[in-house]
Predict the 3D structure of the following.
Amino acid sequence: MTGPDACTQPALVSEPIDEASAAGLAQVFKALGDPVRLRLVSLIGARQGGEVCVCDLTSAFDLSQPTISHHLKVLREAGLIDSERRGTWVYYRLVPAALERMAGLLTVPALEISE
């Protein structure tokens, strides 16, 4: 996901977002809107050491390797995961800053209580 970092990105409910920000966020939420991609993010994030080989991801699904690769590509393009090739295998890991941005966007600001 491109754009401002987590420290400067306002919550969605604190002020209206501009068109470019909405388009970028829609890509991220669309990527997470598929059950297979949501499971992939969960599998990658839950892995001890924070990264997982594509060979372990494909064995967790009853889907073809090209289908899993497509889903991983969508997650990569949305900025949610990153990858590194090591020999013949590709290893995937979450992008913490992307998850922090999403969490910050979905946080409801504390309401000021007047007495």
